[in-house]
Amino acid sequence: MRRKDMTMAASRRSGGAVRRLAAGATVAVVTLVGPSLSAAPALTGVAVAQEDQQDEGSPEDPGQGGGGEDLGDQGDPGAEDGAGAEDGADPESPEGDAPGDETADDPDRPRSEADRRLNGNVPTFPDVDPAAPPGVPPTGGDWALFEHRTACITPGASTSGSLPPQSWAHDYLRFDELARMGATGSGQRVAVVDTGVNRHPSFGDRLSGAGDYIDGRDGRDGTFDCEGHGTIVAGLIGAAPFGNDSRFRGIAPGVELVGIRNVSNYYQTADDEIPEEEKVAGAGNTDIMARAIVQAANQGVDVINLSQSSCQPITDVESPYVQRLHAAVKYAVHERDVVVVAASGNGADGCSTNTADNVTHMTLPGAFPEVLAVGATDRTGALAEFSVQGWWVDIAAPGTEVTSVDPAPGGEGLANMLDIQGNGLEPIQGTSFAAPYVAGTAALVRERFPNLSATQVVDRIKRTAQQTGGVNGVAFGWGTGVVDPVAALTRTLPEEEPRADALFHGGVHHLEERDWTPTIVAVAGAGGGIGLLLLTVFITRTLRHTRERDRQLAEDG
């Protein structure tokens, strides 16, 4: 197949497979998960991940074209590669929990984690070491890959007739109570790895750039955002009250924001071999995403927000590009102690067909166990219809009817709509805009509990969520529930309670052993003094009584 034909095939298909662009390269679909379900197809881009060069007659990569070899369940991270993959068995699952067990077909039987793994419903990634990819900072070689396609959005064009000063999420997540508590995220740095972040009055001097992988010419450093996606995200995290819009604020208005551009749907592949009308909208790829994650981690940030995803078959866990991305995430979490938050993805093609008993696709990087994956809810409290569901979704947050800062270059006000590539205004909604509330919560937790590690911060956020049911407190597509920032900052977890065995041992109260000698001496001394005093009183009273009796006898005589 000619290269341009393959590119066209890639543009027509989203939802997942890894596809070969040319000898030694594969493609994956990357989506900016917002602003709306209807706009999701327009936000589809092509991501290229370089692999080892293969000869023309060599076999295709696993998962190419949505098919390919079924890799099966690869076992838990840390297990031997391929363990249990041949027959789908999970080496750690208890006997009797296999799919053939007589109780496995009972629809009312709660599904255990082991059940889900055995049925292929949870992606189990091979163990990879934390690693930074080569060539982390952006270079001119990156910029040469892409060319500008669509004119950037303009200030003031992203509003409807009635612009609310804040989203319903402000009340739902109790922003006013957070403000009364003094929770601002001060001293924390949050990286927005996205389409860049434009400067805005609400950011003040708290925004800096750390790299532009799409177009770094003219000194662009991650603080230029052509389409506004990353700026909206940054506003939800760290906007401070400003001007006439003083009621609007991000969830952590005191954080320092770090912008990095690693993806854009307003650019396209710069390839003269592909006719202009056949070029695919979208710049960026999974290897660039991996580099951007490490670049952010190396800036000393405390939290990374990734409002982007790549929908892939659940069988592609061993694909090289997946492993490279996973290694970068593990580097950020385990080597740099960074909380990594990612959107769960918006429904499109294969990803929207997942059910609790039949998960066919996963979204990356959210599916990695080290990542805090976020689904979206609507105003009614229900899971938003566009929110991709999977057992890897850890938590949910508001993701509809969003108001944020005007995301255009030079914008100064607020916005609640977005014009996607000239296709008309769309409401701002998507899991892209649920993730920032969780990333901001992570910054607040790190401010409140500075000694917690990244994994402990994630654990606290998940365990303090508003539970929505499910098995053992975990529901499909919801995770542990809806994020509760106030509870994450104030709730005492069971292990933080005073230990009972500090005072009681085996149910019997043991007093502290001490030397009683000084007390005994003091009491004895005091007792002796009291005894002498009583004796003196007794003698005095006896003598007085005797004299009185003798006087009486003398008078009678």
UniProtKB/TrEMBL annotation:
This is Membrane-anchored mycosin MYCP. Residues 83-105 have a biased composition (Acidic residues). PROSITE patterns: SUBTILASE, SUBTILASE_ASP, SUBTILASE_HIS, SUBTILASE_SER. Belongs to the peptidase S8 family. The active site is at D194, H229, S432. It is found in: Cell membrane. The keyword Heme does not apply. Residues 185-479 form the Peptidase S8/S53 domain. The keyword Membrane applies. InterPro entries: Peptidase_S8/S53_dom, Peptidase_S8/S53_dom_sf, Peptidase_S8_Asp-AS, Peptidase_S8_His-AS, Peptidase_S8_Ser-AS, Peptidase_S8_subtilisin-like, Peptidase_S8_subtilisin-rel, T7SS_pept_S8A_mycosin. It comes from the Bacteria. The chain crosses the membrane at residues 520-539. Residues 44-143 are annotated as: Disordered. Residues 106-118 have a biased composition (Basic and acidic residues). It is a single-pass membrane protein. Pfam families: Peptidase_S8.
